[in-house]
Design brief:
This protein is 8% helix and 48% strand. The protein is mainly beta. The strands form two sheets. Strands 1, 2, 3, 4, 5, 6, 7, 11, 12, 13, 14, 15, 17 and 18 form a 14-stranded mixed β-sheet that branches. A four-stranded antiparallel β-sheet has the order 8-9-10-16, with no helix packed on it. The longest helix is centred in the middle third of the chain and has 11 residues, at 89-99. The radius of gyration is 18 Å and the shape is globular.
Length: 254
């Protein structure tokens, strides 16, 4: 892939530490973030925050914090991601250039103490806390096959010309194929347990708090090996509709 700053997929990840927090949220607020063609998978709407520590990857070590909404595309479950923060520039460039992931640089922390794992995301570091998730890993989980739900991004590349429609506006799907690490006893390193999630800032630059945490559904913690392969374009939007001031856009602006 000449002329770019990253290698083409697949990209490999080993020993990833991940905490996930599923919650019920306001359906109207969730629907306002979802592009045309996707529908909410639940009523009330459900969303997920994931904190990932990629201690080794072929893109280098970095961390991610992801906010995703549970949706359906043509009856199939997907996770639509409107917001994503990352700590490494190579991971950011790869995500944006290939799949259109809405990655921004920020600070992500993992603290392991007193039988709990606490994760947080700041942007900028130490000044604006966006989200905090805490889990006490307690109950072993047995992984089930076919649980790799695809992630979907809205890939938008604006035109350099004033007043012109975006040059690219696509709904892009990518699947991360993951396997759970096994402990020394041969059992999966995957646990559920009591968890909490809070959005600590109503920052207009990072409006994660627009999706309130109305009820915690599930929290998990585990360690994984993964491979990130090529994605596919689910839909190409008619960008001419976005250029018309008399109509509402059919996809959300970032």
């Amino acid at each position: 892939m000449s002329g770019t700053n990253i290698d083409p997929p697949p990209h490999y990840f080993r020993g990833t530490e991940m905490a996930t927090f599923d919650f019920e949220t306001d359906s109207a607020a969730a629907a306002a973030l979802v592009p045309e063609g996707l529908v909410l998978a639940h009523e009330p709407a459900r969303a997920r925050v994931m904190f990932a520590d990629f201690t080794f990857s072929t893109l280098g070590p970095y961390r991610e914090a992801i906010l995703a909404i549970s949706c359906l595309w043509e009856g199939r479950r997907v996770l639509y991601c409107p917001y994503l923060i990352v700590t490494g520039d190579v991971g950011l460039i790869a995500g944006r250039e290939i799949w259109g992931a809405p990655k921004l640089l920020g600070d992500i922390g993992f603290t392991r103490a007193n039988a709990v794992i606490s994760c947080h995301v700041d942007r900028p570091a130490g000044l604006n806390r966006i989200a905090t998730g805490v889990i006490r890993p307690r109950d072993p989980l047995v992984p089930r096959g076919g649980e790799d739900v695809p992630m979907v991004f809205l890939k938008v590349i604006p035109s350099p010309e004033q007043g012109a429609a975006p040059e690219v506006c696509e709904l892009v799907e990518v699947t991360i194929e993951s396997s759970v690490h096994l402990g020394s006893d041969g059992r999966p390193m995957l646990f559920s347990g009591p968890g909490s999630l809070s959005f600590d800032s109503r920052s207009p630059a990072d409006p994660w708090a627009a999706l309130p945490v109305n009820r915690m559904v599930h929290a998990t913690y585990g360690r994984f090996d993964s491979v990130l392969k090529h994605g596919r374009v689910l839909h190409r939007y008619d960008t001419a509709a976005e250029a018309s001031p008399s109509t509402s856009p059919v996809f959300p602006r970032r």
